[in-house]
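Sequence design from tokenized structure. All designs in this work follow the same two-part layout: the structure record, then the generated sequence. An example of the structure record is given first.
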């Protein structure tokens, strides 16, 4: 591939939010390295959609809980693209591998959450930096409510890991500021075609109804395209002064008061 033009690596981009980001960047002719762990067919489908939008890229497989596989993934990016403009850390393990409350979560489940988030982000950013110049953009996808609350008990492993990632964002932002590289976290609200769709149907219905009747002021859940729009916005030159932040992309859900029913708050 020619070295000119902008290039991105998005982990977990074979589906869901990662796919939404890949397709949005492709609309701006950004070449995309599409990462997957197990579902190569879905990754190939994402690549086909990228090409339909007038861009190109390649598919790369890696287990992001393994630092050596992360390094290998970046070596392929260097071989294919020669550089990297945008890196999005989005991959997560399947829900059963970490979804247990504090008194039941195993150390293996705890390690899976942290290895796939905080450790993976640490290793990946250090691999990305040599490929980036001024104007580079680094993102991680978080879930900020889960990193600062404790109500969803079975989220303890992932919530704690996301809190660590958000802290890393701030440290990396300071470290990389003089290089002209920004580092930010994007916190979507509940999003269709994401972890929501792995929950039992009854739980999905409860969440959708709760949000559409007011908990999300905009009256709907988010979509992968919504998150892609936010990442694309922050990839622009005009966003070069924003770094070290957690950006809420949740239709206003984070503005609601958890102690008051939404019907009262919205009048």
């Amino acid at each position: 591939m020619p070295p000119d033009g902008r290039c991105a690596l998005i982990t977990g981009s074979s589906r869901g939010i990662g796919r939404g980001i890949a397709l949005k960047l492709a609309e701006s002719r950004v070449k995309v390295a599409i990462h997957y762990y197990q579902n190569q067919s879905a990754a190939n489908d994402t690549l086909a959609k990228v090409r339909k939008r007038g861009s190109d890229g390649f598919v790369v497989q890696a287990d992001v809980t393994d630092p050596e596989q992360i390094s290998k993934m970046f070596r392929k990016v260097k071989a294919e693209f020669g550089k990297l403009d945008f890196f999005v850390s989005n991959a997560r393990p399947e829900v059963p591998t970490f979804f247990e409350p504090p008194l039941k979560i195993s150390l293996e489940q705890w390690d899976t959450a942290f290895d796939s988030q905080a450790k993976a982000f640490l290793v990946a950013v250090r691999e990305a930096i040599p490929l980036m110049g001024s104007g580079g953009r680094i993102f991680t996808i978080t879930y900020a409510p889960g990193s600062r609350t404790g109500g969803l008990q079975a989220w303890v492993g992932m919530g704690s890991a996301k809190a660590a990632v958000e802290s890393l964002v701030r440290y990396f932002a300071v470290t990389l500021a003089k290089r002209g590289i920004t580092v930010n976290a994007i916190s979507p609200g509940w999003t269709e075609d994401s972890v929501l769709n792995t929950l039992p149907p009854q739980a999905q219905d409860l969440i959708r109804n709760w949000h559409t009747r007011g908990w999300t002021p905009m009256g709907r859940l988010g979509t992968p395209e919504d998150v892609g729009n936010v990442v694309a916005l922050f990839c622009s030159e005009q966003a070069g002064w924003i770094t070290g932040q957690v950006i809420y992309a949740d239709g206003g859900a984070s503005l609601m008061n958890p102690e008051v029913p939404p019907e009262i708050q919205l009048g």
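The chain has a mean pLDDT of 93. We note this feature because it recurs in several other targets discussed in the main text.
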